[in-house]
Amino acid sequence: MNTNHTLQESDSPTDDTPPINHTSVNAGFLLLALGVISGFSYLFAVKGLVTPGNAVKTARDISAHEGLFRFGCLGLFFAAVLDVIVAWVLFRFFAPVNRALSLAAAWSRTAYAAIFAVAIKQLTSVPDLLSAHGRGAVTNQIRNEAMNRIHAFNDIWSVGLIVFGLYLLVLARLAHRSGFVPKFVSVLLGIAGFGYLFDSFTALVVRVSDTPLSSVSALGEVVFALWLVIRGRRIARHS
């Protein structure tokens, strides 16, 4: 008896189509939701209140919009939880391609989420630090400590993004070997992985938060998510 399984696109899914179709759609929607939540939480609610090199303005803006900053931190924690869920949904999706490699990918994204959560913890202490003695009693020492914790968040997150970059390279390998994910999608995932590695090492060494590869890295994930939602549902597995 032939126990090999192949995956291919199906133009007319039937009732016995395996749940891998639904897995792909779920993964795609989760990735898109993750992008929206993390994008708003970080770019607007957190980063939008931080002025690099200006501890006084940063402390003033965070104190004036404390609720927004705390909401951003909560959103980032939720994003970390979604990362873990996405890791194991995609494990189920790619397990038929290579179970061991898919398992390694899932655990690496889970490890990234754990590092990300540790980084976010640095941010959650900033509003408490600034409000501990009242707005009028915030000294330069407290403002500088707040900035140090924000820098600690960036540094720890950059370490996590190195892990995430390696994860994307493994995911790109799985996508390439699958036979059903378009080659250009796997290439974009690989480019995204190298982009995160480059960005993260640059952030740690040169202290640059944004590089030309930042947008390219995000593009690879978005394209993959859209493909999962739009085309992934047409994948069927046949014995």
Roughly what fraction of the amino acids lie in strands?
Answer: under 5%
Uncertain segments of ≥5 residues (pLDDT<50)?
1-18
Give the CA-CA distance, first to last residue.
10 Å
Topology as H/E string? EHHHHHHHE
Cα gyration radius (Å)? 21 Å
Q: How many β-strands, per DSSP?
A: 2
- Largest beta-sheet details: 2 strands, antiparallel
Mean pLDDT equals 85
The total number of structural domains is 1
The structure class reads mainly alpha
Shape: elongated
Helix percent band = over 70%
Put simply, the count of helices is 7
Could you describe the 3D structure shown?
The chain has 239 residues and is mainly alpha-helical. It has one domain. It is 75% helix and 3% strand. The chain contains 7 helices and 2 strands, in the order E-H-H-H-H-H-H-H-E. Strands 1-2 form a two-stranded antiparallel ribbon. Helix 4 packs antiparallel against helix 5. The longest helix has 39 residues, at 140-178. The model is unreliable at 1-18 (pLDDT under 50).
